[in-house]
Amino acid sequence: MPKIEDVARHAGVSVTTVSRVLNDRGYISQKTRDNVHRAMKELNYQPNEMARALFRRKSNMIGLIVPDVSHPFFSELTYHLEYVADQYGYKLMLCNSNRDVAKEKQYIDMLKKNQADGIIMGSSVLEIDHYLNLELPIVSLDRQLSKDIPVVTSDNVLGGQLAAQHLLDKGCKHPAYVYRGLGGPHHEAMLASGRVQGYGAVLTAADVQSLHVQLTITEPQEQIVNGELVQFLQEHPEVDGIFASSDVIAAEIIQACYQCGKSVPDDLCVIGYDDVKMASLITPRLSTIRQPIREMATHMIELLVQHMAGEIVPHETMLPVYLIERETT
Predict the structure, then answer these.
(1) Ordered structural domains, the chain, with CATH
(2) Which of 88, 101, 125, 285 has its CA 20 to 30 A from that of 36?
(3) How distant is the alpha carbon of residue 308 from its chain centre?
(4) What HEC string does the chain produce?
(5) Does residue 240 register a pLDDT over 80?
């Protein structure tokens, strides 16, 4: 494998000159630049990007830490983040934390050692002080880490209100809210908890009580008909409407209804949250609360780029959500 010394010798210049061409530092004539690039091409020389990053103190790399990249919401979010980051000249390093404290810490340490220019935190299970001591620009998704770390979120309270009102408008008298524990410490600080707050406020104003069901955390490969949901539906035949905290859970509920012989929406209305692609592909097509995933990704990258440039950015960016009515209600 050719080295930088080989390129210098082939181009008839010093190693320092090759380094300056690679890192775009100092004045170099166009003729010399062309000679160096020609030598690199003829020798099939591949620059050491890590060494260049150390020299420039800039890697053009953004770390993205998510709790579960197999989850449709985080999968779609990652897709849009990568696209927007690329438009700004940055590449993403994807870190799947599984909401594990030790694993998240290892990823953060790795990103620092590899000279990441900034981090997008989609999974935050460590103590807040740990993030404050990173000395790296950070943008958080859906969790208030500190007043110094910008956060991008959607209007979760409004989302819960829209879901509750929609169930009431459909004539539901015995609704239920179904969610899955987030796992890991500090999940109570997630702004997504606003969904149940908005949902509860609308039902309380209408003098309607709701059951709340917390499902256990499952592995991705275990996303089959959920026995917990089947048991719940069998024990509570009066439930006529369910607000699920995600589209994935809503899809599980539809499967459980099929197992129990319940028709959706004739016997039970179901509304999800996120509006990922699967929401319009399952049968019946899912009514849901749409989070603007692409817009959230765009704002996160733009805020991080501004943050990395030392600009002052807003502490919280909240985007609107919308009711999408389909066949399950």
Answers:
(1) 4-47 (1.10.260.40), 61-153+294-319 (3.40.50.2300), 156-291 (3.40.50.2300)
(2) 88
(3) 20
(4) CCCHHHHHHHHCCCHHHHHHHHHCCCCCCHHHHHHHHHHHHHHCCCCCHHHHHHHHCCCCEEEEEECCCCCHHHHHHHHHHHHHHHHCCCEEEEEECCCCHHHHHHHHHHHHHCCCCEEEECCCCCCHHHHHCCCCCEEEECECCCCCCCEEEECHHHHHHHHHHHHHHCCCCCEEEEEECCCCCCHHHEHHHHHHHHHHHHHHHCCCCCEEEEECCCCHHHCCCCHHHHHHHHHCCCCCEEEECCHHHHHHHHHHHHHHCCCCCCCCEEEEEECCHHHHCCCCCCEEEECCHHHHHHHHHHHHHHHHCCCCCCCEEEECCEEECCCCC
(5) yes
Burial of 220 per CB tally in 10 Å (0-12, 13-18, 19+): exposed
> Which pair of structure tokens corresponds to residue 218?
């499952």
Q: Is the model more confident about 124 or about 90? A: 90
Q: Could you give the CA distance from residue 51 to residue 18 in angstroms, rounded to a whole number? A: 13
Look at the block and give the residue holding tokens 């917390």.
214
d(CA 151, CA 143) in angstroms, rounded, equals 7
Q: Which residues does 22 contact at the CB level (< 8 Å), separation at least 6?
A: 4, 47, 52
Q: At what angle do helices 15-23 and 4-11 cross, to 10 degrees?
A: 110
Strands 151-154 and 175-180: unpaired
Taking the C-alpha atoms of residue 189 and residue 180, their distance in angstroms, rounded to an integer, is 15
What's the pTM?
0.79
Nearest of 125, 32, 122 to residue 80 by alpha carbon: 122
